[in-house]
């Protein structure tokens, strides 16, 4: 093996272990209410990416704190509210959603995140669509 290849490989392994690829990512949320005439497609940002975790194969030998599984989660976020078009007067036409400002690798906070991986949910509209850009 060439010295350049070995150096590149070591650099990649070292840098790959310390750098996370957790960052705000563009995402489209589709929101609709049964009473309203339209579905609203909202462009927003969510936290997504890769975070280093520890292998829990030796869980009987390690302290519980050493078994933490970090996830890509919100460091800073703000909430915005959108108006769903075509709603009758007796319906509340507003929908609030989080916007990721910055992200971090850390423990999942159940106060504002769904920390359980559920079955794949569809993210599409069944009604005519209106687009709202952030």
Automatic annotation (TrEMBL):
It is found in: Secreted. Keywords: Disulfide bond, Glycoprotein, Hormone, Secreted, Signal. GO terms for cellular component: cytoplasm; extracellular space. Residues 21-125 form the Glycoprotein hormone subunit beta domain. CDD domains: GHB_like. GO terms for molecular function: hormone activity. SUPFAM superfamilies: Cystine-knot cytokines (SSF57501). Its main location: secreted. Belongs to the glycoprotein hormones subunit beta family. Heterodimer of a common alpha chain and a unique beta chain which confers biological specificity to thyrotropin, lutropin, follitropin and gonadotropin. This is Thyrotropin subunit beta. The gene is Tshb.
